[in-house]
Every structure is written in C-alpha cells, then in structure tokens.
Amino acid sequence: MRYYNPLYTRKWTKIFVPVSTFFTQLGTQVGFQTNTNNDESTTPLSSEYTANASYGNNSSSLSTLFSTLTSPFRPSHKTLISYKNRPNGTVKHDNDNLIYHQLDIHRINDENSNEKNNNMTNNSILIDIPGNYSNDLLIDADNNKHSNFLTLKESFIWIILASLLYFIWFIFIAGISIVHILIYLALLISYILSERTRRFALAILIYLTYLLLYDALRLIPNYTVSTIHIEDIYLIEKKLFGIVKNGHMMTLNEYFQQNHIPLLDVFTGLCYLNWIPIPLIYSLYLYRYKSKRDYMDFAFTFLLTNLLGFVVYYIIPAAPPWYVELYGFEFNLNVPGNAAGFIHFDQITGLKVFSSMYSKNANVFAAIPSLHAAYPLITVLYGSLSKKLWLHIGFVFFTFSVWFSAVYSRHHYVLDVIAGGMCALTAFILYRLLCRIPTINRLLTAYNKLI
C-alpha cells in the first residue's frame, strides 16, 4: 500500500516530521501492514521516499510504537556533524547518496528497560531518505550560501543607492580621501561575505554615522556660527578651580605646565590614546558575548552623546588652555593644532604620535564639551552589563584617568571635562526616555533583528 505524507511538501513544516513519522508508523502497526515476521519488509511512503522496517516478535507492538517518541526523527541540530553526534540514533550513508537514520526502538519490558542492546537488528526501523530529501530535512546549513545569495539579490538596489549617495557626498560636498574609500570597501566586503559579517556591517553603521558627522563638521566651522569664547572661559575656570602658588592665582593647567612629571607624561598619554578604543572594544564585547540590544543601547548612547556635543560646539566655540598660553586672548583663525602637554610623551617615547595627530586638527575652537571625558563615562554607565565587578571598577578608574589627562595635558579646562560628562549623562537619560516611545522601541526591535 502506498502512503502519501503531505507534511514533507513544505519546508516550513519540517518541525512536524516526528509527528508525521509517528502517525505513519501508527497506521502500519494498527493494520495497514500485517507482516509481523522476522523478515524485513518495505513500506513505500512516496515515489522517492521508502521506509524499510523489520520487527521482532513483540507482545506489545503499540508499546514499541510509542517508544519511538523518545527518538525523534527530526533533530534539533542544523548541521549533519551535530546530527551524527546524537546519542539516540545514528546516521549512515550508502553509495546512492542515501542517509539512513537508525531509530533506537526498544520494547518496554523488564528485560530491556535498564540495558542498551547494541545489536538493533530485530528492534529497529531503518528509514531510507533520498539525497534530495536529506538536503531539505537534515542539512539546513547547506542552504546558507543560497539564502545569502537571495539576500544579496534582494538588497542589490539598496546597495547601489547607498553607494551612490556615499560617493556623491564625499566627491561633490565633503571631499573624498583614501580613508573614505577604504571604509566603503571594508563595509561592502563585510556585507556580501557572509550572513554573520553582514549583520556586523549593519551593526557598525552606528559608529560609521558618527564618523560621517564628525567629518562633516569641517564643512561649516563653528567659529562662523557663534562668537569664540577665550577670555571669559579662562576667567571662570580660574575663579572656580584656580589654585594659589607663591601668592599668584593660576589654573590647574598652568600649574601642570610648570610641574610635569615624566611618569605622568607617559601615563596620561596612554590613557588619552584609548579614549575611543576602550569604549569601542567594550561595545563589541557586548555585541559578541552579551546581547545585541545591550550593544545597541551602548552604541546609540555613544552616538547621541556626540550629537549633543556637536550642538554645544556650535553654541559655545571655546579655545583650549594651550591657546591662551601661546596666543593670549586674541582671536587667531590660522592657528594650527598643538600637542600641548603631550609633547613630552612624544619626546620620551620617541614617537610623534600626538604631534602628528594634532597637526591635522583643522578646528582648535572645540574645547567645550570635552568628548574625551564623555566616552569613558559611557563605559561606566553601561559597565554593569558585563556582570564583572573588576571590569566596572576598571572603567571608573579609566574615566578619572582620562579626565585628569585632559587637564594635565592642557587640552581642556575642568569646565570642559564637566561639560563632557554632562553630555554623556544627558544622552544616557535621554536615550532611556526615547526607548519608552512605542514607535522608537519598535524601530529598535526591528534593527535588533537585523544585526
């Protein structure tokens, strides 16, 4: 008698294969197959699907049947390697590219309840599955390349559109460089390489947005929008945080200019160089080892902190402490960037790290707020997500170290550091409030599924 199983006709019903197999065997046991001898018999399920079964003399055939439920046909694993390692059944191949899954069916009685019979000749069912069925039912991982191709095909138009907008922006507006081309190539390769790298490329778009916004600041300098603050910031700093030495009031920056220590020069230089790497690495740690939503919370808070900082840049353009030391209170538009106190780090190490980095700084009037002080504070605010006390304490130490380095190096006033910390804290609170809006929360949930 020929059996037709409609559950095998659709891929989305694979999970019902154990139930389908169970009812097929139920029909066989109840009366559709009458051969209960020791000889093997074959019961075809379809033109391409056959089941070879041999049964021993069994006083309770239905007990044998229901025992098959303990050995499900459809494994929970997606790969053949994991499937082979299943303790409750084996997978075998033959020359015709068939996969044999041996179900460990045993009688429920006293003789067989506490021991395992290695010879499954008389108490087993061998189900022969042709290669085309085995590919659909057992080896889902083989379809990854095909699904990856379909995803790329569906998003091809979006890739072209995003590429056009990217190059139009940099070629005709912002100005293109080799760095922009390398970023584009890295992102494109990551997107088309595999599903995992594509998800990572979509996740890293948050930081790419930050880079694009930061790069766009040079198009409209903040000193063309608002008045530059030089003397007033200096006087407020001296009044609030000034110290007296030899009867003379001075800022902390001026004190450290006269009293610098080589060990602190190296320590502060190392801390300042990691103002972005450590927060970035921690966010990637959240992405890889915690949850994608934790990564999103951190990254979007980081982006929102920068947005608030950029707004303050345009509202209060301010000169750094080293500008007052070199040029006084006069506004000089053609002032190049300066390494200030970090020049000692370059001299001690013999590396022109800070000299080279700050010489490329086109706008020196962006001291308020100090984003160097903001980024480490974000790691403190989200440090509890790691569930590691030592790491959270390390973030607190790192944050205070960067704050001290900003003042010690004469790149920021204490006011700048406080403003940077307030930006991070405000962004953290604002992001939490925005997440309570249903529409924004749904967008974040959808983005979470993409990455």
UniProtKB/TrEMBL annotation:
Residues 260-429 form the Inositolphosphotransferase Aur1/Ipt1 domain. One of its GO terms (cellular component) is membrane. The chain crosses the membrane at residues 155-188, 200-217, 266-286, 298-316, 364-382, 389-407, 413-434. Its main location: membrane. It is found in: Membrane. Keywords: Membrane, Transmembrane, Transmembrane helix. The keyword Amino-acid biosynthesis does not apply. It is a multi-pass membrane protein. The keyword Hydrolase does not apply. This is Inositolphosphotransferase Aur1/Ipt1 domain-containing protein.
